[in-house]
Every structure is written in C-alpha cells, then in structure tokens.
Amino acid sequence: MKFAVLDFETTGTQSTDDIIQVGLAIIDHDLSISTVYSSMVKPGVPIPPFIEGLTGIKNEDVVDAPELDDVILEMIPLLEDAVLVGHNVGFDLGFLQRALDQTGYLAFTGRVLDTMDLLRIFFPNLSSYQLSMVSKDLGFVHDRPHQADSDALATAHVFLKCLEELNDLPLITVQRLSELFDNQDSDLGWYFDGVRMEKEAQPIQDLDEHRFFRQLALKVGDWNEILPAHEERGNMPLADVSFDEFLEQVKQNLRNLLPHYEEREPQNRMFEEVIKAMTDDKHLLIEAGTGTGKSLGYLLPSIYHSVKENDRVMVSTHTINLQEQLRERDIPLLTQVIPFAFRAAVFKGRQHYLCLRKFEHKINTKEFQSPKEDVLIAAQMIVWLNSTETGDDEELNMGNRGADFWETVASDTDSCLGRACPWFRKCFYHRAKHEAGTADVVITNHSKLFTDVKAGHQLLPAYDRLVIDEAHHLEDVAGKHLGMHMKYFTLVHPLLRLFKDSKNGQLAILRQQLGSSGNERGMDWAIAIDNLYPEIVDVKENWDKLSELLFALLPQRSDAAPGEAGQFTLRLLPEKQPTEWTVITDLENQIHIGLSQLIRKGEQVMNQIKESDEQLGTDSLVTDVSGLFKDLTVVRDDLRQFVKLESTDTVYWYEANGNYRSKSLQMYAVPVDVSKQLKEYFFDKKKSIILTSATLSIEKKFQYMIEQLGLVEAEKEGRLMTEQLSSPFNYREQSLLLIPRDFPSVKGSVGDAFFVDTLANSLAETAKATQGRMMVLFTSYRMLKQVYEPLKEKLSHSDIAVFGQGVDGGSRTKLTRRFQERSASVLLGTSSFWEGVDIPGEALTCLAIVRLPFQPPNHPLLEAKSERLKKEKKNPFMKLSVPQAVIRFKQGFGRLVRTSSDRGIVIVYDTRVIESYYGKHFLYSLPGPKMEHMPTEQMVPRITEWLSQAEPEKETVNQEGEQA
User: Which range is least confidently modeled, 6-20, 306-320, 342-356?
Assistant: First the structure.
C-alpha cells in the first residue's frame, strides 16, 4: 500500500482561492518515505500580506513559478494508486479536486485519511493537534511551519508514528475500533478493518501488559489489591526520628539529586511553622510569597506527620491545575528524596472519572448524538483505556464536542450500581476513593471538600489535619457550594437525555428494547414509558416559559453600547419581590407538580422492571434512567428554594447574557456570610488547618482573612498562628513599578474615546520599548475590546502581535502558550489572567494594570455584604471592597517575577493608587518593588533606561518552580 501525504499553501481559506505551493511526501509499502515533491505555483492573484506573514512566501517567490497545469501534470503519477493523507485533509482535498477539475483531469477517487483523526485517537492526551506543536511533542524537527514541503514531511512523520501506535495495540482494541467504525462509510473504518485482519492472522501477543475484561483492554488490575500504605511499609521508618533529622536527610538527598539546589530561609521557616501547627493542634495562616517553594513547604511536614503518627493529612487546592502540578512534579520529586515509601493520592470530584459500565453500554449500543464526532471520541477512549491508570478526564483532549459526550459516560452517584456492577473492581472512581483511603496524604480540591461536607462526610476518607493551598479562594468556593447554583441547562440536559424524540434518549432506547423483547409485561412497560413523553414535553415547555419571563425581567445594562449584548444581573430581595413574581411562582408550581408526577411514575416503572425476574438485558439502561430521575429531583427542589426567596441570610440573584438570552440563565442563592459555616464545619471540628497562599495579608496584617474565614474565635483562644514569609526574590532589584501620574481617569467599566486613545498609545509605545513580552490586565472585558483594535493598528508595522482574551479564540491555556511561543507579542486578559498564569523568564517583561481590580459595587453578593456591614456601623468600602481588590492586585503583580532571575516592569495606569486615601493599602501590600511616578511621556525613556541596566547576577534557581 502506498500513501501520498499532501499539503498546499494557498492565498486564503476559501475554495476559490489559489494554490501557491505544493508539498507531497510519498510513503512506500515498506513504510519508508521515498520521495518528497515540492513546487511553488504561480497564482492568478497577488499573495495577501497576512499569508505572506504566515508562510514567509512572498509575491517575488512565485513570479517565475510554474503554472498550475505543469505542477498537476507532475503530481498525477505520484498520486496514482495511493491513499491520500493530510493534516486536516478536507482542506487539501478540496483544493486538489478543484485543481484537477481546472486542469481537465478526473477527480481523485482514492481513499483518504486524516492525521488529525489519527492523532486524536492514538495520542488522546496531546494538549494541541496543531502540526508544529505535535511535531515538537513527538520529537520531530519541523523547521518551516506553513511551508508545504516542510508541512507534508512533518505530516508524513506524524502519520507513521500513528501507524506505529496502532500496530502496538492489543488485538482486542483493534477489533473494538474496527467494530466501532462498522457501517460508518469511512476510510478510517476500512483501514482499521485491514489492520484487524492482519493482526488476527498473527500469533496472540501482549498478554502481560494489559488486563482484558469484557472485550476491553485495560492498563490496571483490580483496585482491591492495593494495600494500605502503612501495611505495605511494614516497619515504622520514623519511630525514633525527629522532624529536623528527617528534614536534614531529605535536604541531603536533594543536594545529591539536584546540583543547583540551595536552601531558602523562607522555606525553612515554613517547614517549622507547619510541623509546629500540626504537632500542637493549632490552625495556621501562612502567607508565602512567590519563590518560597510553598508546595514542598507543606508537603514535607504533612508526609512526616502522617507517616509518624499514622494520621492522614488532606491537602486541598483551588485549581485542578495546581492539583496536577503536585501530582506530576512535586510528588515524583519527593518520592526520589524521602528515604522511605509513602503514598500520596489525588482524589477529584466524581464527575472527573470515567464510568466503565456506561462507556461499555454506549459503545455496544452506539448511542451517539452526533455520530461522526462521537465515534472519534469513543475510539479515542478505547485506545486511552490501554494506558490510563486513573480514568481522569484531564488526561484527554476531546475537542469541542467532548464535554457533552463525557457527561453521558462520567461516573455519578445516582446511577452507580456499587458492588452489583460487573465493573466494580475495575471502577476508576472507586479506585481513586480506595487509594485515598489507603494513602498517607490525599490531594483534593476545595470543591470536593465542600461536596463532602454536604454529603455528610461520605466522600473523602476521614481526616483531622488539613492544608488549604490557594486559601484566598476558600470563602468564594464555600459560598458557591453551601448555596445553590443552577443554569438553564441544569434541567434541560437530564430531560433531553431521557427523551429527545421517539428514537433518541435513554427512555426511547429502553422502550425499543422492551417493545421488541416479546415479553407481555415488556409491552405494558413500553406503553407506560410512552405515557411519560407528553409530561417531559410539558415540563420543558413550562421551563422555557419561566426562563423567558426571568430574562424579560432583567434590567438592560446602562453601560452597554447600543446593540451590544451585555451580561445582565438582577438581585431578588425576599422582602421586595418584583410584581411579576406571582406569575413566576405559578409557573414554578406547575413545573414542580409536573416533575413530581414524572419522577413518581418513572421511578415506579423502573422499579417494576428492576424487580421482575425477566431476563431483558436492560439493567444498565434502567440504572441510568433511574439516575436521571434522581437528578431531576434535586433540580426540582433547588428551583423551589430559589423561587420561594425565603431566607434573609441568603443572597438571591440571577444573570444572563444578551447573546444567548434565556438559554444563558444562571440562578444563585448564596449565603451572605460563610464564616459561621467554615468555623462550624472546619475550624471547630479539625485539629489543625494550615491555610496558605501568596496573598493572605493586607498591609502585612491578616485581620481581613481572619474575619472572613471565621477564625476570630480560634484567635481569641490562642489556637491560631500567623506567619508572613517574605519572598526570597530581590524585588527592589528585579522589579520597577511605574505610575503615570497625569493619566486620564475613567468612570465605570467603559473608557471614553480620549482615555482609550491615550491608553492604546501608551501601551503601543511601551510594547515597542520592551519588544512585546507584555501582558495587560483589564477589569472589564468591554474595555479590553475597546483597546484591542486600536492597539493592533498602532503595532501593525512593528511585527508585534496582539492576542486578546475572548477576541482571539482559544482557552486561557492556549492564549498563554501562543504568547510564550511568539516573543514579540502583547497579551490582553481579564479576570482569569489575574492569577494562576505562570510565565517565567524572558517571555514576560512588562505587566500593565489598567484599573485597580475592584469588584463592580452592584454585584449582588458584594451589595448584600455591604448592607450587612452598614448595619454593623462599619465602612463596607474599607472593610470589604478595598481588601478584596488589594488581594486581587497582589495576585496580578505576582504574574511578573516568577524566578530569581526574572526582571520586569509593572505599570499601574490607575492614578487612584497615589491620589486616593486608600491607594497606599495597594502599594504597601506589595513585596517591595522600586516605585516611581512621573508624567506619561517620561515613562518609555525610563523603561528603556531601566531595562538597559546590567541584569542582576543570576542566582541559582531552587529546584522547585512556584505557583502563587
């Protein structure tokens, strides 16, 4: 079999555009690349500047190039009897067919394979399927991206790598893939079928590497074989070892392992404070600046304490990112340097784990919503099961449709069969739970902590000592979890999964199975299911009406530009309900009655089927349907709680977006003050809780956090320790903070024309002085959009790219990566970029903060907290708004200096930091950068001067990077 790997460069992406370069790599039957054909092509139109910039192919390069006819004539013999391969091959195939047609040849009718599909299936955990990124990840040299010959060659290498992976799969996996694409009329199915037949003719291999169960190959065996950590260790490695002795030994091992390792005083202080709090049963608030190495600062004492006392320690992070960082980087390092075996388990929310029973059912019944895309995701997962040890969705790159697919196969409480499930001993969720129960240290996240509290402590293993990293988020997460949050789709999804139309949905499939079972009770049940459909439709119609009514009540945003769809918010007050609320209450009542009837009748039928002795083969489906009825019960009760508006200690509000209208509806009922609950569930119950973050203090004091988190009593009783560790970085040398004191000010979240123009000018001039490498933080997405185009325009001749969050597609991670890859660029970000973004080294030299990050004063939760403070005769602005903004400001500042050799500039364009009475709280809370203010026009010369000063001596970097 011969493969022809094709790539075109063109004047644009429309089918009417012209080809400017051809690259064709031929792979022979022995899987060697025998020929690479490449040619420029003379287009009928000039090459647009954008394409010149992207490909590096200029108009002068194609002036004397051969015509399309000549190039096609040379290509045709190479394409004969070949399977056509391309990266996103539809694009190249379209251009090929048009070129063949234009030059009078017959269309290409051979088989076609896409390396994008193959990569998704065989490398399910790549973060990007962009050709240059894939080449780098798979270790190929791809030196000229967006040039056809280089792209074709890179694609050929990628294709061969995918075939290698396919050949290494066990036979059962290849059979599953072949079966999955059966009846798909796809060339991928044809190819898998060929490989299957070849493999079936060979002797059986790979019996040791995988576990085979119910026609799937898995990487891991039964989880009940895992022994508790202390049993596995056998002896007591720390019986007569003090913490200092243990620490000395670990440090010695670190020095041996990492030649550049050096101790840091702040980290040593942290070791002491954390172990003291754990030993003395106290709580500890510890602020650890960037570069302290705080992950090791709490992990080492936690491991020592849990192993010595046989007393598990729970560690909680706010982001999955940090959880992954601890799993991927910190724990493996500690495994190498701690002189005995310990076990750290990562335990996430249940929805992160694959349910093997649901997945098996899905691929057996091929119950796919959008077949073409879903078959690819299913194939990806079948291959992934050969390598995953966790079944965690974070390991998969499922593409845009992935979230909907995952929702149908994720583990969840309501549809879990427990020990009755044939997959129970292989179950990924129960494996994670069992591992957590047998581990010394368990790494979870804030969400799971509160889900566990709400579930009566049934989810996490018991613990008395807890470390909370990223603790400045604790209050926020507590509010979301101890309150209620519901979206438009929270009700629509379970309804649609039950019944979409007579052929789609769990009930429809169950009805078909019962109807064709030939069993007379089966027919009765099928009729009972038919009677549920109208009730589902009624509930959905009433819910749509209710959502429309709620959307209509939202006030139009005063600062939204004409014709612009903004984010609208309405707070609901128990004592002052809107006049239309009676209509809404009536509709909710109809939904409540409708749902109650539907759930009652539905559960009745499901129970009858479950209890019957008939062998109908419907167990799996009945379990899932019952689970959906349980979901609906929760939604029904949450909706009632929201519409009743009963509690004065709760803030009720809902919001929606002008573009998606009622479908973007989100409802909230959040406690005004969570400090009482935090005290009751955590600080009173647990022996020792360590709270750490880079931003806990305001002007070197912890008072704000102590009050917000419910630690006032612990402080009075002497049960609270506090410690502020300074960063080991020399901020005075490494960072310069500038304030343009004559900069125009702005009211609200929108700048006037003068402000926008002045800002865009200043940013453009600064970007030129720093050669890009600049991040600009906004507090409003609208202002970001206002500045994006003018800034792009002003930088268009300087080769500095501008990336805008929400303007240029892609997630935060993708934008950050693009920014890091292209050194001359400016990244504009809003709220999510203020923290958690880690861009060490040269990539980031300048950070611009456009406005101080105050929360909008009319945000319902802030409003309610302010009212409460006023009643207590306190100043809400100084007690609440300023501290919140200071913590956010410190987080933003922390993006700049990430290692001891980083050097950079922060510009604060908001003159309130030097003009207002509260400005000093912001500046005094920073870790001591050099601060200067000056007229705007003097800024760029000062920046140039400061950057040209000799860089500080590069210190040796401690082994552990740092995430604030």
Answer: 6-20
Angstrom distance (rounded) from CA 837 to CA 821: 15
The verdict on whether residue 292 carries a ligand-binding annotation is yes
848 is in an annotated binding site: no
Q: How far is Cα 65 from Cα 67, in angstroms, rounded to an integer?
A: 7
In which region does residue 718 sit, left (phi positive, over 0), alpha (psi from -120 to 50) or beta (all else)? left
Ligand-binding site membership of 436 (annotated): no
Span between the terminal Cα atoms of the chain, in Å: 54
Highest CATH level, class, for 731-949: alpha beta
SS3 145: coil
Q: What is the pTM of this model?
A: 0.85
Taking only the tens place, the pLDDT of each residue in 45-83 is 888 887 887 788 888 888 888 998 999 999 999 999 999
> 289 labelled as ligand-binding?
yes
Crossing angle of helices 115-122 and 371-384, in 10° steps, is: 40
Report the b/e string of 528-551 with b at 16+ CB within 10 A: bbeebbebbebbbebbebbbeebb
The torsion angle over the Cα atoms of residues 714, 716, 720 and 724, rounded to 10 degrees, is 130
Q: Which of 934, 936, 914 is nearest to 924 (CA)?
A: 914
Cα–Cα dist 65/88, whole Å: 26
**What is the β-pairing status of strands 650-657 and 567-572?**
antiparallel
pLDDT tens-digit map of 459-507: 999 999 999 999 999 999 999 899 999 999 999 999 998 998 877 888 9
Question: For residue range 623-667, what is the model confidence (pLDDT) as tens digits?
Answer: 889 999 999 999 999 999 999 998 889 999 999 887 788 898 999
Determine if residue 804 is labeled as part of a ligand binding site.
Answer: no
Identify the CA nearest to 86 among candidates 29, 155, 168, 3. Answer: 155
Cβ neighbours, 10 Å, residue 469 = 27
pLDDT in tens, 954-963: 333 333 333 3
What digits encode the pLDDT tens for the residues 812-864?
777 887 787 777 889 998 877 887 677 766 778 899 999 999 988 888 999 99
Of 501, 485, 779, 500, the residue nearest 652 (C-alpha): 485
Residue with tokens 């031929």: 26
**294 has binding-site annotation:** yes
Determine the pLDDT at residue 960: 37
Q: Whole-angstrom Cα distance, residue 280 to residue 276?
A: 6
- Residue 269 is predicted with a pLDDT of 94
| Rounded Cα gap, residues 833 and 855, in angstroms | 15
> Are 345 and 89 in contact, with CB atoms under 8 Å apart?
no
Which stretches does DSSP call E strand in 764-895? 774-777, 801-804, 825-829, 846-849
Task: Judge whether 779 is annotated as a binding position.
Answer: no
CATH fold of 2-168 reads Nucleotidyltransferase; domain 5 (3.30.420)
Beta strand 825-829 pairing with 846-849: unpaired
> Which residue, 428, 480, 427, is CA-closest to 449?
480
Both tokens assigned to 303: 């491991």
Token output for 502: 């007579």
Class of residue 302 by CB neighbours under 10 A (exposed 0-12, middle 13-18, buried 19+):
buried
Domain with CATH 3.40.50.300 in the chain: 731-949
Residue 809: the pLDDT is 65
Identify any residues that bridge with 723 across adjacent strands, giving them in sequence order. Answer: 286
**Contacts of residue 928, Cβ cutoff 8 Å, sequence gap at least 6:** 731, 732
Of the candidates 784, 888, 891, the one whose C-alpha atom is nearest the C-alpha of residue 837 is 891
Say whether pLDDT at 336 is over 80: yes
Cα–Cα dist 128/148, whole Å: 20
Q: Do the annotations mark residue 780 as ligand-binding? A: no
**Mean per-residue pLDDT for 756-775?**
92
Residues of the chain with CATH 3.30.420.10: 2-168
Check if the beta carbon of residue 166 is closer than 8 Å to that of residue 195.
yes
Cα 451–Cα 455–Cα 461 angle in degrees, nearest 5: 80
